Amino acid sequence: MKKTFLAGALSIACFTGGFGLQANAQENVDVASFIHPKQAVAATKQAQSMTYQDLYKTLVISKLAYEDKDMTLVTTKNNITLKISLQALLKVTEMSAQEQKEFKELFGDSIQMKFTPSGNAFKAEVYAQGKWQALDNADLNAFVGAIQEDNIDLKSGGYFTDTIGHWAEGYIQLLFQLDIINGTSATTFNPNGQVTRGQLVSMIFRGTGLDVNKDYEGPATYKDLANFPGAKEVAILEEYGLIEIFDGVNFEPYKPATREEMAFVTARYLESKDFDVSKVSKNNPFTDKNQMRQETVESIGLLKQLGVIDGANGQFNPKGNLTRAQFSKILTLTLMLVGADE
């Protein structure tokens, strides 16, 4: 069910622990009784102080750890609806046949929750016994405790109105929380905007864990970086051999990066993190392979075999550009690979 996540940093474990399932006929279902009590206690302060925006961030990041068939999340500007299947829960906890029967009597084949903003806070509801019912504090604490990632202190900001409901919102939010990407403003991200060469380098640089002040040893060989804010990042990655694909006299930081340039830099990043690429096939299956720069063919093949990139109709479109949303997914999947390998 769960995909490999960032080891040591983001091992999100939703609904782990035992479920003390207690079906009852009370008017409001006691959701807390279905969730491990230790999680409920741990989350008490978090749930009471969590804003709607922080709840949104928590949910979209948590969703990345689950397959679509196990968890669905629908976000709009008006509410958030979450559905977790019984089959998903059975993969992380033990339920007797009787407990499963009682669960189905209350929730059906999945547990559904809805969150609606109310000022800076929110109203939480669960769909049980055929109707939407309010979640009290104990229920909410139990739920938040089950999904909250202890290793992440959510940053302020990052509630991008133009990524709500976007297919890449989880990837974008995760990278924002890790200080790898920024918005185009306090409330927008421009997910469909093109990634420039400068942005590509900046995001890869932040993913490496390198430090501009400690790792900078001198300017890059490119002649057009005097007024570029990320000049030191470019210089450091050039020193490490990650951006050899940009082999001109000028770097052209504001020029949109191509898909093959992105693949080359991303593959070099994997190698720089001591990811063992020798065990992975570099077979490039794309039918437009003859349109790729020769030095990018294996990089694109490697990332394809690792499931980091894909194409359309058998083609990769190497000379095309990529969007900020697309690269957010690619970089997130790459970081997951590095975390799992470490």
Concise synopsis of the structure shown:
The protein has 342 residues and is of the alpha+beta class.
Shape: elongated
**Discrete helix count:** 13
Give the fraction of residues assigned to helices: 25-40%
Report the end-to-end length measured between terminal Cα atoms. Answer: 21 Å
Q: In the residues, how many domains can be counted? A: 2
Rg over C-alpha atoms, rounded to the nearest angstrom: 23 Å
Low-confidence parts: 1-45
Largest sheet, order of strands side by side?
1-2-3-4-5
Largest sheet: 5 strands, antiparallel
Total DSSP E strands: 5
Class of secondary structure makeup: alpha+beta
Order of helices and strands: HHHEEHHEEEHHHHHHHH
Mean pLDDT: 84
Strand content: 5-15%
Mind sketching the topology for me?
Elements: H1 37-42, H2 44-49, H3 52-63, E1 71-75, E2 80-85, H4 86-90, H5 97-107, E3 110-118, E4 121-128, E5 131-134, H6 137-147, H7 169-177, H8 197-208, H9 212-215, H10 231-239, H11 259-272, H12 297-305, H13 324-341
Antiparallel strand pairs: 1-2, 2-3, 3-4, 4-5
Helix pairs in contact: 3-7, 7-13, 8-10, 8-11, 11-12
Describe this entry's structure for a reader.
The protein has 342 residues and is an alpha+beta fold. It folds into two domains: 31-147, no CATH class; 169-341, no CATH class. Helix content is 37%, strand content 9%. The protein has helices spanning 37-42, 44-49, 52-63, 86-90, 97-107, 137-147, 169-177, 197-208, 212-215, 231-239, 259-272, 297-305, 324-341; strands spanning 71-75, 80-85, 110-118, 121-128, 131-134. A five-stranded antiparallel sheet has the order 1-2-3-4-5. It is elongated. The model is unreliable at 1-45 (pLDDT under 50).
